[in-house]
Amino acid sequence: PGEFYRKKITGLCPNTTYIFSAFAANVNTDSVHSYCDPNYIFPDILFKIEDPNGVVLGSQASGKIPITSNGLVWQQYGFSFSSRNQSSVNLVMVNNAPGGCGNDLVLDDISFYICSPTLNPQTQPSKQAYCIGENVTILGGLGPGYTNPQFQWQFSSDAGITWNDIPGETNQDIILKNLTILPVIGQYRLIVAENGNIGSSTCRITSPSVAINVVPPPTLSIIPNNVA
Fold first, then answer.
1. Taking a C-beta distance cutoff of 8 angstroms, is the pair 4, 94 a contact?
2. pLDDT (tens digit, 9 = 90+) per residue, 82-119?
3. Which end of the chain is more exposed for a tag (fewer CB within 10 A), N or C?
């Protein structure tokens, strides 16, 4: 029993919720189990995430990893944790089982990914096109997951090829007043991150784009009736 794996993970976003996961399998077969009975030892791993000072941010014990009769079968283990104010953590694995007959395992697919909330912006009122002078609100549609979110709306006038921050539009919703053809017509999207991470492209999430189309009023012409 004891620690058998330690790796420093760098480049994390501070104050962000992450999901850690890894796959493990028992490499022994039923014949090994029978040979060792009654003293067979199942693999048992404790996964831990620690900050640089050794504080445990999250952990999970695998329990006894079973033998499968139909060949090697991977079991996924994982948990969520907050990076707090850290940009690096240590991944630690501890063997909970003693040496002896059994306790043979294999590991694969160690991964970290951000636990991101959903973003589903909606327009109010919802139309395919708006008239000049109308007002429209785009609701950010942020789902749960962030503790203290920070917002930034962006605008694209070239079908989403380039995006630019809209100065001052840092609320969850954006109100477009007195629509005109330019520069309102185009696509809008919302950028969200935990407070302090909005400037990092790897620490924020981006909503689907919302197209706002503004159409001019129809032209009218009066044709005199020249009939005598």
1. yes
2. 999 999 999 999 999 998 999 999 999 999 988 889 99
3. C
Closest to 204 measured CA to CA, from 8, 16, 1: 16
Overall pTM > 0.85? no
- 9/88 Cα distance (integer angstroms): 5
**Cβ atoms 184, 176 nearer than 8 A:** yes
Per-residue pLDDT tens over the stretch 4-58:
999 999 999 998 999 999 999 999 999 999 999 899 999 999 999 999 999 999 9
Q: Is 91 helix (H, G, I), strand (E, B) or coil?
A: strand
Alpha-carbon span 52 to 6, nearest angstrom: 12
- Measured CA to CA, the distance from residue 13 to residue 114 in angstroms comes to 9
Name, in order, each residue with C-beta under 8 angstroms of 207's C-beta and a sequence gap of 6 or more: 119, 120, 121, 140, 141, 189, 190, 191, 192
Residue 30 has φ and ψ, to the nearest 5°, of: -60, -35
- Measured from the Cβ of residue 114, the count of other Cβ atoms closer than 10 Å reads 19
Contact 129, 214 (CB under 8 A): yes
Rg (CA), the chain: 28
Give the helix/strand (H/E) hosting 179: none
CB-based contacts of 157-160 (< 8 A; 24+ apart in sequence): 157/183, 157/185, 157/186, 159/187, 160/187, 160/209
3-state secondary structure of 46: strand
Beta bridge pairs of residue 190 = 153
Residue closest to 175 by CA, chosen among 216, 212, 129: 212
